[in-house]
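Hi D.,

Good news: the full-assembly prediction came through. Inputs first.
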Amino acid sequence: MMHHSFELILANIGRHISLTAEESSYFTQLLRPGHYARRELLLMEGAVCTDFTFIVSGCMKSYLLDQQQKEHILTFAAPDWWIADINSFITGNPGNLFIQAISETHTLALSRRNQEILLREIPKFERCFRILTERAFAASLQRNIDAMSLSALERFEKFRLQYPYLLSLLSDQEIASYIGVTPSFFSRMLKKHHLK
Amino acid sequence: MMHHSFELILANIGRHISLTAEESSYFTQLLRPGHYARRELLLMEGAVCTDFTFIVSGCMKSYLLDQQQKEHILTFAAPDWWIADINSFITGNPGNLFIQAISETHTLALSRRNQEILLREIPKFERCFRILTERAFAASLQRNIDAMSLSALERFEKFRLQYPYLLSLLSDQEIASYIGVTPSFFSRMLKKHHLK
DNA sequence: CCTGCAACTTGACCTTGGTCAAGAACTCCA
DNA sequence: TGGAGTTCTTGACCAAGGTCAAGTTGCAGG
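Then the structure:
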């Protein structure tokens, strides 16, 4: 069963580079399994994000609180995705994001220190992380584009087409926060367009 | 003088990895110098972005036109920065961004093909591009956060503090587009707050 | 030096989405 | 199974920022 829990992450990595059996086990032994209850925090504002975290099951979100303590969701992470406060992770400085479990979640964490060891011992992981980062970067740019050029309704339509799986896991508030509107406006919008 | 034109890019790379003299010259010979007049396009919507482009002097912007043909600026690139339509570059599909020179600009282009050769011949460049991408990714996430949690005025204040150098090169329309407001609102905002 | 276009400004009005507060509807355990 | 907290909905009102069009200013090229 130990073996079983690494299947998803090895498949994830295997999409970008191929590993021998030894390399795979070297890699997996650098991972730290974690378990979070619904609403449990993985990271708090002001803490240094020391881990790059892979979601095995469940779902997490990263968000920040603005000056008025309003929550703004930056990303969701479903199974087979990674989550971190990248800015804090790469600089080593305290971050301003919270990361929280939306439902009961199993994770595998790769610490900064272990990532360095991994990259030194198996340099082809550089390639893997480059590709993962490129994709996440492209997704983030697209979100900037959408925020600038689409209406709230269009952003929601796009979200539901792109992440139908997440829709069922999230509260309306969370979807509203992600697309960048208030819960009350979101509720009105759904009603007006008979989307619920 | 050939040598001189590579100093900036070698310093840029040198911030992340160290290269021998041979590696440096292997790298620079994979670069294609380019020159663009003010307003000249480096990339058009619908074209495949085949190059990762380094700005030696001058300034460029990437932008898209929305359904109503309104321009939205995604990024600026001053000297010592890279610019590309990352999504098109990594997928090889036609992109939806334009890249255009704001002033007369000298560039060094690394094509996708040459990047592959470079990564194969000198694998430590994987690390370099991973780090460059991570930083660009962190900047993009921060922009998402700012778009969600700051007012137009706050976004402008942040922009002028962060990129004072760009302020002098850009028209008000371009700044307005980048911070995500119309030129007329931007003009009113400056006046209201005595910012000009 | 002048002209013609591009950039900026401004007025009047409009739209999208926010605020605050109160009520209705879930749910999750004890 | 029955509260106690969430979450969702809704009304009345508000504010940030957009639209359109008409000036004005500025400046680059002939």
